[in-house]
Amino acid sequence: MQFNGDMERLLGRVHVNAPWDYLLQHMEMILEHRINVEIGFDGDGLDRAPRADLKRAAEQLSNRGCRATLHGPFWDLSPGSLDPLVRQVTRRRLEQLFEMVEIFNPLQIVCHTGYDPRHHGGYRQIWMDHSVATWEILVRKFEALRTPLLIENVWEDGPEIHSELFQRIDSPFFGFCLDVGHQHSFSTTSLPVWLEALWQRLQELHLHDNDGTRDAHLPIGRGEIDFRGLFAFLRERNRDPLITLEPHAEEHLPETLAGLLEVVDFT
Which CATH number is associated with domain 5-263? Predict the structure, then answer.
């Protein structure tokens, strides 16, 4: 894969999503270009990845100067589930993710709330109470390691769920990851409202584009998301969150980098 000079310099400033299997398959390219990664683990990866392979990958990244963050499992997980067995499985998966911290020494970790208003809206307070109990245990563990745990938006219609979690679990190591593609495709609440409510907790951005009809993970500039407005808001408030790019096709990475260079000045 070819990158021009500006793109290579930008790769040193951002992270790129890399599911565990993808990381192994493309390690040569990642090391060649010193790509910082957000390593994603699903349940299968947490169960089956040999510890020797995990340690080898972490050592390769560290030796090459590639920074790492982690993205936790989320399929069918619900930290606030009304079913105690679902909560038990969810907590076990999150504990497995915690075990990855000593291997990769990540800058921070991203997880989903698991909240879907279509399923949980009628039981919101019960769900929230269970969710707080789940996250508080993990937050205290991550506090001890001084590793931020960030909660990403997905299906939430507005920032209220995240705001309540942050109000009830007050920790400098418990923050917000704004996924602008999710916000644009799943939420009817505007981006400025999300930003105004949560900017003080914002520690990471997940960047990809879409036209609002679905979570298409297009390169920046191919959709309708107001990236210029996003970065103008952050400049006004002197916020500089970690940026993770989320192209879902390998060939989209150069176009994503070029699109990002068009909407923000990194000099």
Answer: 3.20.20.150
